[in-house]
Amino acid sequence: VVVEYATSDDSESIEIYPFLVDLSRTCNDVKFLLVMGDESEKTKELCKREKVDKVPHFTFYKSKEKIHEEEAIGPDTLVGDVLYYGDNHSAVVQLHNREDVEKLIEDHKVDHKLIVLDVGLKHCGPCVKVYPTVIKLSRQMSDTVVFARMNGDENDSCMQFLKDMEVIQVPTFLFIRDGKIDGRYVGSGKGELIGEILRYQGVRVTY
């Protein structure tokens, strides 16, 4: 659930509203709510209770838990946030523990597909920034590459996996084939990520 707090006279709220409408049409598993802070005394009180100081203010909820907040952001950041925190429908496999990782690796030992595992954290700006690229690549490369992601701070199992993989910075992309980790890329550069994926696919890449 994404809740936007806005006011009727705020230019940034007005500017970002069409993008919110478009997202509500394309992201079917995300619910969008709009609270106009200047509509009534009740909405003013709600904004005060939620400590909304600047609009547009976006609050993200998952399983009734507040997982993220942003304020005074532009359309690109909003789209990235919605895709990152609300993605349950793309080709990117969502991993929630070590067992999920092991099963994914085992499943693709037969087809020899390259697994690109995006390891990040819930409140990681660079992780959010690069995720739309991950989704796009997962669609374009579905014949040869499997994309997956794990948030290390989701639970103890995920955090232990990060430690075992010696992940120090996020996002870190692990490249796995035939059950073995062939390499990794640390960073959120779109071009560099694509280049590394192609390199592990056997394509000669020069930077």
From TrEMBL:
Q: Which GO terms describe its molecular function?
A: oxidoreductase activity, acting on a sulfur group of donors, disulfide as acceptor
**Where would one find coiled-coil regions in this protein?**
none
Q: What is this protein called?
A: Thioredoxin-like protein CDSP32 chloroplastic-like
- Domain Thioredoxin intervals: 61-203
Signal peptide range equals none
Pfam families to which the protein is assigned, alphabetical? Thioredoxin (PF00085)
Q: Which organism is it from?
A: Trifolium medium
